[in-house]
Design a protein that fits this description.
Elements (H helix, E strand, L loop, with lengths): L2 H13 L9 H26 L3 H10 L13 H11 L4 H17 L3 H25 L21 H18 L5 H24 L5 H33 L1
Helix pairs in contact: 1-6, 1-9, 2-9, 4-8, 5-6, 5-7, 6-7, 6-9, 7-8, 7-9, 8-9
């Protein structure tokens, strides 16, 4: 088997079960998100290295705390319980279970490309998160007691990054099969909403600085968009080869 035929077979396999968006507008939008996301992450990381964001971080962090006792989050007790439950959405156990269930569905319906795309996008995003945490080594907030148990470093927020990658990746697969613009907007908005509330919950439960979460959102959106962009061009290449 020649290299060209092997490449064509791999491209066909990866594109199976996937539909991508507009051939002209989608790549431009995705490239813009990748560029802006990476730029935002680098800017935040640079400012952290210079210590410029410490006061801003502390001010935003304490907004979600009682003025009389910073160890107590604002709001009633049920809100604290809800925040802990929401933050679990971005934890690895639930992310892995969700990804396994979705990938399993794609496999049994022979949408192998969709399954591979979801697993690779989320898996590499999680690996990127852990690599960057170890590289920057930023300690967790020490101003208040934590409402959630943590075992890793603080920057960037893994919950914010991986949740953003996971739900935007799954949303990108779904919108490829939708013709209704309102339905596509709803799916993408839902994915963004989940990423936002998980990120905010990480600050609320006291385990992340706001800039950790902002960096996680930025890089998560960039990574999900880059994955989507790669799959889009694979799909276009398949279409071009078969025409």
């Amino acid at each position: 088997m020649t290299e060209n035929s092997a490449a064509k077979r791999l491209t066909t396999w990866l594109a199976r079960g996937l539909k991508t968006g507009n051939a002209n507008r989608l790549p431009v939008a995705l490239f813009a998100i990748v560029t802006l996301g990476v730029y935002a992450f680098i800017e935040i990381a640079d400012e952290l290295a210079e210590g410029e964001l410490r006061k801003i971080d502390e001010s935003l962090f304490l907004i979600l705390r009682s003025p009389t006792d910073s160890n107590i989050p604002i709001g009633p007790a049920w809100l604290q319980e809800t925040a802990v439950e929401i933050t679990a959405i971005g934890g690895y156990p639930l992310i892995i279970l969700t990804l396994a269930a979705v990938a399993g569905f794609f496999i049994v319906t022979r949408r192998y490309g969709a399954a591979a795309y979801a697993v690779l996008s989320v898996g590499t995003g999680a690996l990127l998160s852990q690599t960057l945490k170890n590289y920057y080594g930023r300690p967790r907030p020490d101003l208040v007691d934590h409402l959630d148990t943590v075992h890793t470093m603080s920057f960037p927020s893994g919950h914010a990054l991986v949740t953003t990658v996971t739900y935007l990746t799954l949303a990108s697969i779904v919108v490829g099969f939708l013709d209704d613009r309102r339905a596509r907007i709803y799916v993408l908005s839902s994915a963004v909403f989940v990423a936002v509330i998980v990120g905010v919950s990480r600050v609320y439960v006291g385990v992340h600085w706001p800039t950790d979460v902002a960096a996680g959102w930025a890089l998560g959106a960039a990574w999900a968009s880059l994955s989507w962009l790669v799959v889009h061009f694979i799909g276009r290449r398949k279409t071009g080869a078969s025409s």
